[in-house]
Structure formats: C-alpha cells, structure tokens
Amino acid sequence: MLAALAALTAGLLVFHRAVPNSVGRAGSLLEAFLPWLGLVGVVLLGLALLRRSALALVALLLPVAAWTYLFGGLLLPGGEPGARDLVVVQHNVSDENTDPAGTARALADAGPDLIALEELIPPALTVYETTLAPDYPYHAVRGTVGLWSKHPLTETRQLDIKPREITETWSRALRTVVRSPHGEIAAYVAHLPSVRVGASGLASSWRDESAGLLGEALADEELDAVILLGDLNSTVDDRGLAPLTSRLNVAERGFALSFPAAFPLARIDQVMARSGTVGHIRTLPATGSDHLPVAARITLD
Question: Buried b vs exposed e over 101-122: b needs ≥16 C-beta within 10 Å?
Fold first, then answer.
C-alpha cells in the first residue's frame, strides 16, 4: 500500500496536466498546491521506516525524483547581480490596509527600480503617491493598479481584462513603457479575479477568462522586452495561467510563498518576463496587507 501511494504521488507530480478540469477544476486545484505533495512523501517515509518496508523505501525514490525535477531548482541560490539587471517589487497592498505609509516605506526600502501595487483605493492612493514620490518620481495608475518607477514612464493605457459576466466598473490592468537605462520595456500590471475553493471544487472561470485576455494583449505587444507584475490569483503551475506562462519566463529560483501573509501556502503574486530572465524571487517582510510583497531580480537579454 505504501509503495502504491508513493507511485501515485509521483504520478500526480509528473502527470498533473492529465488530471481533468471538467469536475470542480480538480486539475487546477492540484496544481495550485503542487509543491506541497512533497509533504506526502515525508509522511510516507515515516510510515515506511515504521513498517521497515524496503519496497516502500525504494518506491519513495519515485516521488523524491519527481519533486526534485520539478522544484529542486527553486531551492538553489540566485546568481550574482549583473549590469543589465532590474529589481522589481510586486505587492497587493489590500484595500483594508490601515498603514499605507508604512507599507510604501517598507517597499521603497528594498530599493527596487519598479514597484507594482494592486487594490489601490482613495484615500490610500494619495498616501502611496506622496510617500513614494521622493524615490520614485514616475508613476502610472489605472483603476486599482499602479506602477512606480525610478525611470520615465510613457504610453500608459488601461487594459480591458474584465470577464464578460462582470457588469460593474472594473479596471484592474495597465500597460506602460519603462524607459530604462537598458532600453524600452513594456511593463504590465494586472490583478486577475479571485478564486474560491468550495464543496464543488475550484471556482476559477473568471480568473481563467481574464488571464486569456491578458495573454492576448501580451501576444500583440510589439516591444521585445516585457515585464508582467501582478496578483494573478494563481501559481505558475496552474494551467489557468497557461496564456501567460506560455509566453513569458517565470522565476527560476525561489519559492516566495506570498499568500496568505499569516501562513503563506502559495505564491499568487507573480513576476514574469520576456526577453529577460527572472533569476530569483523572494518575499519581503509583512506589511499591513494579507499578502506578502515579493521582490525579484530580472536580467534583460
């Protein structure tokens, strides 16, 4: 039995795309927490040692190998900073954040080139603008998302990624051009719809539709260098983000579990790039939000 469970765990890790989404979006739900399958292997190891089962111990090599292949690289240290690096910070600041000034200062203290924020609401928006202005003289806000930059921003526009069933005002994505020392970069900031886990499974149709619209915008982007920052309400393993992960590079190092801040289970705050490598991603100390900020170093091609 233990050997069979080990083989099943390895199969789910390697062939997670084969788990159908037809019932309760089971495939996406599995992929949202895929790294945590490693804990199943730890439990099975304890049971195998308790039972002194040589067969189970040998079978456990399968999930260990599968997990290491998929996620082992994320545990390696990041490379040395380079001349064409940009440091970026992504943070859903929460519309219930009672300390926007403290949050802004904490993000600026990390010294990034770019800071992307979601769930911006008045009057907190004014606080972010005022607090970040000394170090980030350029910023662009559309709806509830914004980007603060040390470098000039041009051609800012709102992106329409609103699902068809949402009828109220809804503006949660923008595109702008960062005139960096390394050339022009198309920067996208997005906040995809939330998902819910209930008795019927994962409710993610709005998020998936919004990700598809954002993917179409990225496909039409004429600039070679692209950076996407946002609360995407999904992990990079989730097939719901395939319209984005199929077009952009994701972080090569670091887990950076960002949500919920009190006990992080998944990284749903993402940094992706085209014509650039997201070499390492990490979390920053908690703010007044229910998300942890994430910081990443991007090496441009």
Answer: eebbebbbeeebbbbbbbbbee
